[in-house]
Amino acid sequence: MSDSGGDRLTERFIRALARRVSRRSLLSRLGRVLVAAPLFPLLPVARAGAAQPATPAPLTDFERNAQSKDPTKCDYWRHCAIDGVICGCCGGGIHTCPPGSEPSPTSWIGTCRNPDDGRSYLIAYRDCCGKNICTADKSCRCDATDREMPIYRPQGDNDIIWCFGGSSMAYHCSTAALIGLAG
């Protein structure tokens, strides 16, 4: 078998390394490299795409037709994910329950776009419980499913009566309280 030039070069390199570095030192350095290597992807890096603003989601049918003047209508911008009777039609307000009913201890969340400023907001929908269902005008009964989550995520589903945990499971109406800016 003949020696190749690569074998001789590799042998010289390893012998020179062995003269300068002990085995313990070599293993220590190798260990540090192996421990530190997974952390490199976490270091801040200037990426070319990072400066580009996110593209806003296209408008949904609800968002194209939403209005911001009358909160007792189903097309009011905060009602993008409401399902039920609007409390504003039943003696309550956009975020308050009518007298004799109480807010459910739980709520579902929606993200609605305000047509006035074009920004998206988090809305907490809360059922008002303790009285029979409000018999307001049919125009106050809404079933908005804008960006509704599938049923496998019950916390995002508006088809559930959210009165559980309160003093009564009797559903009366639903509110739409603004939480804050989304994203």
Report what the structure shows.
The protein has helices at residues 5-20, 23-36, 61-65; strands at 83-85, 102-103, 108-113, 120-129, 141-143, 171-181. It has 183 residues and is of the alpha+beta class. Strands 2, 3, 4 and 6 form a four-stranded antiparallel β-sheet that branches. The chain has a two-stranded antiparallel ribbon with strand order 1-5. The radius of gyration is 31 Å and the shape is elongated. The model has no long low-confidence stretch (mean pLDDT 83).
Q: Which key terms come to mind for this protein?
A:
183 residues, 4-stranded antiparallel sheet, elongated
Task: Walk me through the topology.
Blueprint: H1 5-20, H2 23-36, H3 61-65, E1 83-85, E2 102-103, E3 108-113, E4 120-129, E5 141-143, E6 171-181
Biggest sheet descriptor: 4 strands, antiparallel
What percent of the residues sit in helical stretches (DSSP H or I)?
A: 10-25%
> Roughly how many Å is the radius of gyration?
31 Å
Tally of DSSP β-strands: 6
Distance between the termini: 68 Å
Principal-axes shape call:
elongated
Strand content is 15-25%
Helix-strand category: alpha+beta
Mean of residue pLDDT? 83
- Model regions low in confidence, pLDDT < 50 over at least 5 residues: none
Number of helical segments with 4 or more residues: 3
> Which sequence of SSEs, written as H and E, runs from N to C?
HHHEEEEEE
Can I get a quick summary?
Helix content is 19%, strand content 19%. It has 183 residues and is an alpha+beta fold.
